[in-house]
Amino acid sequence: MSNTVVDIWGPASPQARSSFPPAPEAHDEWPLEGGTAWVYYSPLNRRQLTRPVILSDGFSGGSTNLDQLWHGLEENGNFRFVSELHATGRDVIILGYHDRTASITANAETAIECIRRAVDERVGREKLVVGGFSMGGLITRYALARMDHDPSLPDHETATYLSYDTPHLGAWFPVSLQAFTHYATDKWGDTPTLGPVLRQLSGLLNSPAAKEMARWHIGKVDAEPGQAPERLAFLRKLEEFGGWPRNVRKIGVANGVKTGIGNGAKAGATAVRGDGETLQDTWLKIQAQGEQIVARLQKAADEATVVRTSGLPDIDGAPGGLFTMQSPAGDTGSFGLAALLMSLLGNEVDPDVITTSCFIPSISAVASGDINDPKALYHPITEGDSALDAFHCAGRNEGHTTMTEELGAWIVNEITAE
C-alpha cells in the first residue's frame, strides 16, 4: 500500500512511526500565526514565486510534520506529486499548522495569512491554486469563501480550488470505536503505560476539528450520536460565506469509487472481539441500519456497557477513503486500532478482525449527496451530482489521502489545463 499524505491517528497511535526521512530544505520558510509555510520553487522559475500552488495539511494529532507530509507527497512509491507540479512550472507551498486538532475556522486564519503572503510575494499576475488534503480542503475552502465576503480582506486572486479526499459533507468515525476509546480511557486512562495513549486518542476524537468534521460524534461512552454543536456552528459560518469560494474553479478527488460498490465490510458483522485479563466478551460491530447494538464493553468484574444506535446508515462498508495508519508495524485502520488497544490491555483478540472501514464516503469527498442517506451512499455518482466543477474518483476504495498516479496526475492535468 502506498503511503498516505495525512495520517489520521498521528502520534496518538501506539504504532505511530517515530520518524521519516528528512524533507529537502525549503527554498523559503514563512512563519505564520498558527503555522508554517514551506516554499519549494519550481526549477523552471529561478527561485521566484511565479505560479503558486498552496497545499494544506489536514486532520491529525499535534503539529504538522513536514518530513511526513513530504514522504506522502513525494516518496509514496506511486506518484511524485510535488515533482510533477514543479515540472509544469508550478511553485509548491506546503501549509502546516501548529495544532491540527484546532478548529477549522482557527486554522483558516493561518491559511488566509499564507494566501496573502503568496499574493504579495508572487512575481507576475498568475492566479493561485489553493487547496488541501483531508480537512485541509475544508480549511482552505472556508478561508477562500471568507476572503470573498470579508471586505477587510484582500482578493485571494485564486483561479482553482482543489480538495483531496476532503469531508465536504462529513467524516465517519465509527460510533462503536468512539465509545470503546472513551470507555477504555475512563477505565485505564490513569495507568502509567497505556493511559497517556488512551487519553490522547480520546482527546483526538473530542478535539474541535474532529467535532466539526464528524457527521456523528459522541463525547463520552453513553452519549447520543449526532452532529456536535461545534459542527453545526461551523456549517452556519460556512453558509454565511456562501458555502464555497466565488468565481473559482472547484476540483476534487475521492479515494473511494464512484460506482457505489462498497469496501466489503458487512453491516452487522463483528469487527473485533477481545476477552482476557482486563476485558470480558467485549466487541464492536460494523454499523448497520435501524436499531443496533454496536458495541458491548465490559471491564473484568464490572457490569457490561451496551452501546446502541438508531437510524444510522450502513456507512462502515460504504465506498470511500479508508482509515489507514502507515507504520513499520502495519496498518491499524479503525477497528484494527481497537484490536491493538485490546491486546495492549492484556487480552486475546479474535483473529478474524475487520481492521478498517470507510472514513470519507465518496459522496462526501466530491460533495454529491447526504451521507445520512443509505441509498445515496451506495448510489453511483454521476457528473451532475457534485457541487464541484470537476471531480475524479479512485478505481478502488483505498486508504484516505493515498497519493496515486490516477488521482495525482488528474489533479496536475486539471491545473495545467486552466
What's a concise summary of this model?
The protein is of the alpha/beta class. Helix content is 29%, strand content 19%.
| Structural class based on helices, strands and sheet pairing | alpha/beta
Query: What is the residue-mean pLDDT, rounded to a whole number?
Result: 96
Number of helices: 12
The residue ranges in which pLDDT falls below 50 over 5 or more consecutive positions are: none
The count of β-strands is 15
Radius of gyration: 21 Å
Give structural notes.
The protein is an alpha/beta fold and 418 residues long. 29% of the residues lie in helices and 19% in strands. The chain contains twelve helices and 15 strands. It has helices at residues 66-74, 81-87, 104-121, 135-149, 175-188, 195-205, 208-213, 229-240, 335-344, 362-365, 374-377, 405-416; strands spanning 28-32, 35-40, 52-56, 91-97, 128-133, 158-164, 249-254, 270-276, 282-285, 292-297, 305-309, 320-322, 347-349, 358-361, 390-393. The strands form three sheets. Strands 1-2-4-3-5-6-7-15 form an eight-stranded mixed beta sheet, sandwiched between helices. A five-stranded antiparallel beta sheet has the order 11-10-9-8-13, covered by helices on one side. It has a two-stranded antiparallel ribbon with strand order 12-14. A hairpin with a 2-residue loop joins β1 and β2 (35-40). The longest helix is centred in the N-terminal third of the chain and has 18 residues, at 104-121. The protein is globular.
